[in-house]
Amino acid sequence: MTPWRRLNPRMLLVHPIETLIRLLPALVVVLIARSDSDSRWELIALPFIVAFGVMRWVTTRYRIVDGQIELQRGLLNKQTTTARLDKVRTVDLTAKVHHRLLGLAKVEISTGGGPRDRLVLDSLLVDEGRRLRAELLHRANPEITGLPAPTGAPVDVGDLGPDLDVAPVVDEEVLLRLDPAWVRYAPLTTTGLAAAAAALGFVSQGFTRFADESDVLVERARGLRELAWWIDVVLVLGLVCGLAVSAYVLTFWGFRLTRNRLGSLHIRRGLLTTRETSIDPARVRGIQVDEPLGLRLAGARRLKVVTTGLHREQGGSDWLCPPAPAPTVTALACQITPDEQAVSGPLRSHGPAARRRRLTRAIVPVLVVVALLVVGRLIWGWTAALLGVAPVLAVAALALGVDRYRSLGHAVTAAHLVTRHGSLDRQRVVLDREGIIGWKVEQSFFQRRAGVATLVATTAAGRQHYDLVDVPVDRAYAVLAEVNPDLLAEFA
């Protein structure tokens, strides 16, 4: 009978640390409120936290048997979760700072795209987690005697199990390493700006809370208000850029993308919290090249993988390349998907009807704003200077509409369906034709009047659907017939 394996005993230190971190704000408030009291009854909770961690270690165990992995946990309410090995899609190793200090990692085994489709083992030794990852991803290849883990350590199928002896190292193909110079792209992405905005919000809340109690902060704030407006703008931009760069470094420092001889992709990244993601090549259904406006103007892009099993709530897990120069991203995309025509070839435009719809959607909101300004001028006496923004808005809207149409396109190659759309956040998706499991042709009221439709290709990977927006109706059915001729009869 296959023996059960337990989590590493060092997790008894991890659980109290994580619990204390979660409860830290409440503990600080309690300690401040009771600073004048001699009793410390709140410390009674510490033994219970430690006892809960011990109980969690004692009642959690796992094993691999009969072609599946079993996870058992709980004392009074015992739960056993099982997953077939051939359903394992990705394996993530995450190590926060306290994990790294103890040589541990949290292993997340995904069999689907939702939070319920995963098994979590927190915590295992790093080497043990990597061997488990190799066993889960490559066990379906029994004809291979030496299985290389994505980190380079080969694993023998017959010896896999609780034995953790170190095996010799083998080479693997390094597809990409982070260039520190790429941090200059951090302020040009919505991700970096969102991180900066969150940090600014946190700082502003703290400033508001303590400003009344600190004469120094009040004096500094008064000094900032007395500066010229353009100096304030420069300071804010500098602060935002610094926070965005910090978020980029924390997330992507040490980024490395490798591929072993079985084709598995392995991503490692992170400065304080390191994360290793391994992707089974059989689950990859394509790639996505993101070109936000800021990156596009700077000649940069970023690359994501379209695959099954990645958790969409965990941002960044599908990134194959952080924001980087466009030639670097294109070359990497061709290595992952060896179809140059699909990755960087020209696309077919969607015609004059799609152009009219792009321009209409861009200009109509500007006309509404101008109408409101005129009404405000006539009824409420708003200053006429507000109408001076109308020409600027009109030019910007026209440029946006033209760029959205130029970004719109699609193509069909021998192995892929390519779709592209967007302006402020332009995306080019290269989808494997074999990964498409269904089609849908959608037409809104205005699309029917314009003679266009949205062709939706459904798949089990990524967002589960990828759209050809505002394509002529006859062309939509032509694409469907070219990719899946057997399904065309279903739309007749």
Q: Your description of this structure?
A:
There is one protein chain. With 492 residues, this protein is of the alpha+beta class. Helix 11 (351-379) runs antiparallel to helix 12 (389-407). The strands form 5 sheets. Strands 7-6-5-13-12-11-10 form a 7-stranded antiparallel beta sheet. The chain folds into 4 domains: 5-169, no CATH class; 180-252, no CATH class; 280-348 and 408-491, no CATH class; 351-406. The longest helix is centred in the last third of the chain and has 29 residues, at 351-379. 41% of the residues lie in helices and 27% in strands. The chain has helices at 11-33, 45-59, 97-102, 126-138, 190-211, 215-225, 229-252, 293-297, 326-336, 340-344, 351-379, 389-407, 445-450, 473-483, and strands spanning 5-6, 61-65, 68-73, 79-84, 90-95, 104-110, 118-125, 146-148, 154-156, 173-177, 256-259, 265-269, 274-279, 284-292, 300-307, 319-325, 409-412, 416-421, 425-432, 436-442, 452-459, 465-472.
β-strand percent reads 25-35%
SS elements, strand count: 22
**How many angstroms separate the termini?**
57 Å
Q: What fraction, in percent, of the residue positions are helical?
A: 40-55%
Indicate the mean pLDDT. 81
> How many domains comprise the coordinates?
4
* Biggest sheet: strand arrangement: 7-6-5-13-12-11-10
pLDDT < 50 stretches: 140-170
Give me the secondary-structure category. alpha+beta
